[in-house]
Amino acid sequence: MTVVPEELLPLALSRPHDAIAAAQTLLAGSPAAETASIAHQATGIGLRQLGEVDSAIRELRTALRLAKGVPDREADVLATLGATLGRAGRSREGLAKLDRAVELSRGALAGRVLLRRADVLLMLGRHREALEDLRIAITRLRRSGDQLWEARSRNYRGVIQLALGGTRQADADFDQAGRLYAAIGQEFEYAETRQNRGMVAFARWDLPVALQFLGEAVQGFEAIGVVWPDLTIDRCAVLLAAGLTAEALAEADEASGRMETVQAAKRADVLFAAAGAALAVGDSATAQERAERARRLFSAQRRTWWSVRASMLQLEARYQSGERGPRLLQQVVRTARRLDEFGTADAAAAHLLAGRLALAEGRLRTADRQLELAGRLTKNIPPPVRSAAWLGRALRAEARGETRRMLTACTRGLDALDDYRLMMGATELRARATGHGAELAELALRHALRRNDPHSLLTWGERWRATALTVPPVRPPDDEQLVQDLAQLRDVVRRLESTPEPTRPPALERDRRRLESAVRHRALHAQGAPSGGETRGAGADPHPTGAAAPAGAPEHDSRGQAADQTPRAGAAGAAGGVGAGGAAGAAAGAAAAGGAGGRAGAEVLSAFSPRLFDVQELHGALGDSALVELLEVDGVLHAVVAAGGELTHYPVGGLAAAGVEVERSRFRLRWLAHGRSRSGPSLEVLGQRLGDAILGPVQGVLGDRDVVMVPPARLQALPWGLIPALEGRAVNVVPSAAVWLRARRLRPPAERRVVLVLGPGLSAARAEITRLTEQYPDAVVLRDGDATAERVLKELDGAWIAHIAAHGTFRSDSPLFSSLRLDDGPLTVYDFERLKRAPYRLVLSSCDSGLAKPVGADELLGLSSSLVPLGAAGILASVVPVNDPATVPLMTALHAHLQNGHSLAEAFARARAAAGTDPVADAASRSFIALGA
């Protein structure tokens, strides 16, 4: 590649590999000293971009030697060398070089030098000094018409504004910088602006937008072959905040494995992010080790603020590991005080931890003061931070015996999180977001238990249970890319499953992982409606003012890199928050300073408000039925029974023991499904044990009522048909009483359309569908090649009754990829979420179709649970694998009773009663549950 010397320095940042090659070609021609200085400087910048900092410094010293006698050239190289030394952790030497460069420079060159000095000042946390340097730099560069360096200066200023809480000013600077970079084709730095705008969104806790911008940055860096540690740090922060802890840990671990190629200053940042990720997944030992290594590096680099934050992360890890006592309390209080001095949001989380420790030690005065500090509220703080402040106030009020204030604080904290959840369009993010409010709900539930107040137990239990299922996910109707990705994924999985495992091409498995990642991330980008009801889905530019990618260029990001590119301290790096394992990033810094739309529509949002659960409406809707809501408080199950217009509370027993009985029962049903073993405890014995563990005294008070069961998420896979006390009655299982009320309000479609679907590879199910075809002669029947995803979705949309007989797969690792196998591949939850309205009644004659994964506070992610907010009033699904031939008579009888006007739960109870005594048929009938109303 041939370039003129003047083009080498901009190229070094945009395309470092090409710049190094061009510089070496130039040097091979034995150029004059000034030209050689430019070539060595460009090589140094390129090497630094690629993580080879020591080699970069050697090249830059050579460039400086060759620049002697040419003041402007010497000043420029001094600035590059100073910035690089700062990034290598040698900040004192680096600032000395930069100060000398400022003295030598004038005009536009002075602006360039000031920018590079600002970068090192930013890294050291000297934000105000850096901001002043940049103010002068932008003025000089704009006057001289230097677009590239003006863009860089604006980008850096945006990073500092973000650190100081000025999200609006930061986004404006990043936007303008991105436009300038796009106009002059700076691919690397344009990508940085996308990354930085992602962190502005993170500072506002707009996680879907943050993930979308960061995804664009990933694509941009990958397109030019650059591995950028800053992006890893920021993505880790956002993923942790979104509750995607496994993904954050994988990202951090991958970056940790590349530590030798990372600049010294960035090694500390990567270790800090990796420590936070380890803490989030409960690996306190790894978190402590990584945080200590980060602290040492920060201290060596004279990055005091970061060093204190790393110390706080170590203390959190020690607390998580079970350590308590006055020594830890003292250290946390001292560290919180130091964080207060820096004026960042980290301090609030530190005070909260100190308050907990003081309460445990009986140090009530210390606890009161620390929790008071933790509960400070300022304007414009994001909802999760506001909720944490209300938690501090709630704990303080509880310790002082101020019940009314404690409950008010719990309410206000959960209210803040309601608004936050509705900012997100994706079911997964909404579900995981509830984890922020779990402790607030638990405080109120404990209070209700102390008062033995069943009304409060029920209303507070409903306040924070299955809230993600009350509003449909947002999906843009014209998201063709999502549709294409899902179609490609089906094809890849179909080919994988049709190929014997030993001969499967590795490329197919890689394609599957790539497509699953693309689908999931596209779904996560969907936005809710934080205020006026406007909803934007994946695929829309989250900020219409954003710069377009340069023609023919990849999408890129922009952090804060001076063209000789001092890698910026980072938008996330500029500020951060302890408590999320240091992952709050810029969001916490901004906080310290300063409904679903789409097809859901306003009518869906108003259909249920979790703040206003109506117990009287519940009593009226139940009629002669009973509702049993199971609540877990401090490891103990409690039941609230609503029956005959009254509420009664019954203690049940330990949740752990109940979980053991659930797994024993499921194991036995799995064996009986295929006739593997008829020895061991009978189903009757297992059922009685299960009933005692799950319902306890409630079994004796139900009479002959039909029952609505509301179990906690961790017990959702329970085979209710095994419990003797529930025999002979209709049993509806729902994730919350509010979801049941919502399902009852649904009205069947005017058109009584029936859809029957047969997936491939089920010989027994063919007889099942044939019989149902006789019962429903006008039904739409899809089988033998016609049961493709798009055709099935089209027919399911708004159907009255749908019956799908297909192989089912539950993915515990990624529950929204749980699926039913159709003729062209798996139909996943992401496919189902494209429905405008799910079938009014849906029968899933499939293995494991009723399973879901507990996430967040008390939420479920899975195939059946995803259909609840889409308009399904009732779903029949299995919680274990079932025997295919044994289900045929069960399903035939079920539909006969549905045709006679019975509800799904009633029809299922009658069909079960006729199942007979054959052990396999009996096991099959007990393996299904009726969900909904």
From TrEMBL:
Pfam families: CHAT (PF12770)
Comp. bias (Gly residues): 573-584
Signal peptide: none
Basic and acidic residues bias: start-end ranges: 507-519
Domain CHAT: 686-915
Bias (Low complexity): 537-553
SMART domains named among the record's database cross-references: TPR (SM00028)
Region (Disordered): 494-584
Gene3D superfamilies, A to Z: Tetratricopeptide repeat domain
Name used for this protein in its record: CHAT domain-containing protein
InterPro entries attached to this UniProt entry: CHAT_dom (IPR024983), TPR-like_helical_dom_sf (IPR011990), TPR_rpt (IPR019734)
